[in-house]
Every structure is written in structure tokens, then in C-alpha cells.
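Chain X:
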Amino acid sequence: MSGTLMQSLLVPLLAVALGADPVQFRADPSVTPYPLSSGNGPWMVLVMGFHGPEAVEYANTLATELRRDHNIRTYVIVRIPESSHAPVDANGVVGKVRQYRQSAVLAGDFSTMDEAKKFCERVRRIRPKCITREMVPPMRWQRGPLCRAFVVYNPLAPKDRQRKGVVDDPFILKLNKGPYSLFNCPGTYTLLVL
């Protein structure tokens, strides 16, 4: 893998883990040899996310290396952009919409969040050969290319399992007290994590 790679933490994937509609994400064996299923997990580590035309290739390469060299069960989940209508402004000028493929590498099949957190610390210290200095910002390279790995609930798990898993965390419960709780949100949502 060479060249510059645009990356993200896949906030939409996190939103799915917290209750958004998982239909937009695919665990298609024709796209990846390591598809995620609703039976995996339920707790996992989101190792790294990618977006751009080569996102799936990068995710598959990272998943393969982690399986081969570190004996880690990895899975790849992919979001392919929906075809959408181009926006039209008040003057009738048709705009352009830029959409990218997104993919993420998830690791582990943990029954509790604590097991996943412990494993996450191990993952953050790994320096995969397939992730080059050009692919991550300089500060992240110094800390380790996987330093932003974090624990998530399996985004393809049924919503009742997701909700149960999220409610088990006292911090999430504290954040969602009161009338503006995300647990009471009737629609899909994206949670921006800075």
C-alpha cells in the first residue's frame, strides 16, 4: 500500500453500534474474505477505519496481517455509498456529491466490555507493516498507527442486543440521563466524537 490514505474513525459505524440502522453496512463475502456477522462479539475493538476508493483493499490487507502475524480474529465491515440525487440550488444549478466507500477492521469476539478494553490496549501497541508513515498523521505515527482503536458493540447485532449492551455501561447510562437521552431518539442518528 502506498500513497496517501484518507482515514476516519467511521463515525457512521459508531452510530450503528449505538443504534442507527445497520442495513447500510455490508458484511458481504464477495467484498471481503473476513465478513462480520451478527453472531460475532458482541463486544469488539474497532481497530482502524478507512475511506476512499481503496478502503476495502486497505481494510482486507490490515485484517489479513493481524490474523497472520498476531493471531487476532479480525472482521471487515463495508459501507458502500448509496446513489443519491445531486443537490439543486435555488437557481437550478446541479451540484455534486462526493461519497466514499468506508470500511473498518473489527477484532475480537468478547462477551464483556472489560475483556474488550483489555484487548484494545494490546491492539493499540501493534505496528502493522501494511500501515505506512504516509497513511497516518505524524503524531499518531509516533504513538502507533492503531493508537485510536476503541471498543464498540457489534454493529450488526440485533438492536435489542445493542441496546442491552450499551445500557450495561455506567458511563453511557450517566450520559443519557434526562429528556435528551439518545436511547429515546426515534430516528437514526450520527454521534460526532471529537
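Chain Y:
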Amino acid sequence: DKLSSTFTPFLFPIFLARVGTCGGNYTSPSGVIYSPDFPDKYGASHVCYWTIQVPEAFAILFNFTFFDISDQTDMVELLDGYTNQVVARFDWRSPPWELVNITGNFVILYFYSDLFNT
């Protein structure tokens, strides 16, 4: 099970990719986020937060190019960075549509995998 997401608040390419990390902070106009252990299947017991804060942006566009979560309790959430309220939630039953547009300039991408990945 793997996932990959690209976010783009502007339409010019500056990419920063950190493969295999669990969390991080992004302030660039665009970037790439991979699940832990990507391209291999992510392991159990992950709780990861990536903050994406681009002061000049009015919205942040997420492009989920690859999303593979098969465990029933694993999930990805997009949270408003200022209020921590869930804006979107994705799991094995409700994967993201390809493009997800979040209004605002501060988003937290939360990834959770339970103790037992099947």
C-alpha cells in the first residue's frame, strides 16, 4: 500500500521530494509528498504530519497521483492548518478524486496506519 500526493498553490514548477520520510514542513510553491517507505508498502504504526504553508497562496491544490490504502483503519486527512479541522478525509472506501482544491494557505496532511497492516 502506497500513496503519493503533489500539492501546487501556483502553476510554476519547483519540486522538493523527500522519499521515505514521515512528516515534514513545506513552504515552497509546489512539492511532492510520499508515504513512509515509498515505493515499498508503508509499515504499521505510522502517524505522520506534513505542514504545507505558502503565505502568498489563496488555495492549495493536491494532485493524488497514486493512492493505495487497503487496510480498513488507515487514512489520510487534510486539515485546516489554523483550526485543525478536517477538510477532507480519504481511506480504502473513499479514495481521493485526482485533484483536491483546499481554500487557504496553510494545510496539514495527516497520514495514519494502524498497528496491524494486512
